[in-house]
Amino acid sequence: MNVSNPVIARIVEAKVRPLGAAPAIVHTAPKLAIAAIRHGERRIPAIHLAVAWAAAHTDHIASAKQEKEREVDDE
Predict the structure, then answer these.
(1) N or C: which end of the chain has fewer CB within 10 A?
(2) pTM of the predicted model, to two decimals?
(3) Highest taxon of the source (predicted)?
């Protein structure tokens, strides 16, 4: 079964958007999955990789914002 790039992109976007990811992350995650597939990764693991990457970056950005808010509150 051959799945096209737009289908992979829609699957990844559908999984990343509910995470509350920034638009840049939502835009980049499908590209990461497609690149992984082109470099020999299977489809499902490539999708998991892209979603995990987006989740990690979303958590990182959220924690950085919280830290910045704490610094402002302390002053």
Answers:
(1) N
(2) 0.77
(3) Bacteria
